[in-house]
Amino acid sequence: MTQIKLIDINKRFGATHVVKHLNLDIADREFLVLLGPSGCGKTTTMRMIAGLEQPTDGDILFDGARINDVPTQLRDVAMVFQNYGLYPHMNAFDNIAYPLKLQNVNPSAREERVHKAASRVGLMSYLHRMPKELSGGQRQRVALARAIVRNPRVFLMDEPLSNLDAKLRVTARAEIKNLSEELGVTTIYVTHDQVEAMTLAHRVAVMNDGVIQQLGTPDEIYGDPANVFVAGFIGSPSMNLIPVKSDGSDVHWPGVSRVKVRAPRTGALVMGIRAEDVVLARPGQAHFSAEVFTFELLGDASLVNIKLADQVFSIKVSKDVRLARGDLVDVHLPQDRLYWFDADSGERVRG
Length: 351
Ligand SMILES: Nc1ncnc2c1ncn2[C@@H]1O[C@H](COP(=O)(O)OP(=O)(O)OP(=O)(O)O)[C@@H](O)[C@H]1O
Ligand SMILES: [Mg+2]
Description:
Blueprint: E1 4-13, E2 16-26, E3 31-35, H1 42-50, E4 57-62, E5 65-66, H2 72-75, E6 77-80, H3 92-102, H4 107-120, H5 136-148, E7 154-158, H6 166-183, E8 186-191, H7 194-200, E9 203-208, E10 211-216, H8 218-223, H9 228-233, E11 240-246, E12 251-253, E13 257-259, E14 267-273, E15 279-280, E16 288-297, E17 301-308, E18 311-318, E19 328-332, E20 339-342
Parallel strand pairs: 3-8, 3-9, 6-7, 7-8
Antiparallel strand pairs: 1-2, 1-4, 4-5, 9-10, 11-12, 11-14, 12-13, 14-20, 15-19, 16-17, 16-19, 17-18
Bound molecules: adenosine-5'-triphosphate and magnesium ion.
């Protein structure tokens, strides 16, 4: 049972304000992902929750009790770091057993718990190996086992999969997801990889420049982005975002001239549409025509990129479509798939 509350947290390193007025409520047993670009303040936030860093101001609560002044070792949080932080001179067993040793758990109970944690992550046959004799994926599992062996109140994971190759990341991701569901421990997971965030999280906090941009379920941040930053950050390829001017009846799109779509208000706006929502249409139904700039096979689908006023615009098409550079395509923008943002603030403008 651990519910975490961050109340108006600020963190400054000298003159640099790296975490700004951060408020976050994390439910018991929730899997919350902190997602954002490099340098946005994810690790700093995590380190404050762990007690490795003090907030400049603001409160951190575990189950309603303020823990700002509680030292790391008494917060009962288990951390998994990007580089795993294994002790190189200890074999896998001793690495996993180490937190129990610190807690003075007796040797036979220690062995039982290490075996239980190790079998959970499929490490039983590697316990005698030294870290240097293990693959990246196996080391990562040692780090996970060392975290789960303690039955902590909270898991803090900081990009734990970033050293693994693409294929291993997918398996390890599935392992972490199952593990956290089985153990039911409140988890905060840091990543800059949006696929990881979308697949793992109950809720995602999208962060940029020290500020939470949006907090929501994966569905919400993908389908209902709060601002241009979230719209452009989530999704691959990124949402097409076009600066336009609306005069009430249609919009003026530089490089395309006018398109007959309805904007929620007049003036300068950013119009957004995801590549998979754009439709290749028959000429009569098209909003505009353009030449193919590049055509990319993705395997399960293909990507048609057109270039309009120096901006690349992507259209996802079914894997059967074949096009080549220079081909003319007719493009339809379904009205109900358009997103609108204020051109100055970047905030979502709803229709
Ligand atoms: N001890 C420190 N002293 C001064 N500045 C720091 C310190 N630690 C972090 N920073 C700065 O704070 C900002 C946030 O750093 P942080 O490590 O939290 O980013 P991050 O979101 O985890 O990035 P990444 O994805 O690259 O790990 C960065 O600009 C960083 O340079
Ligand atoms: Mg970091």
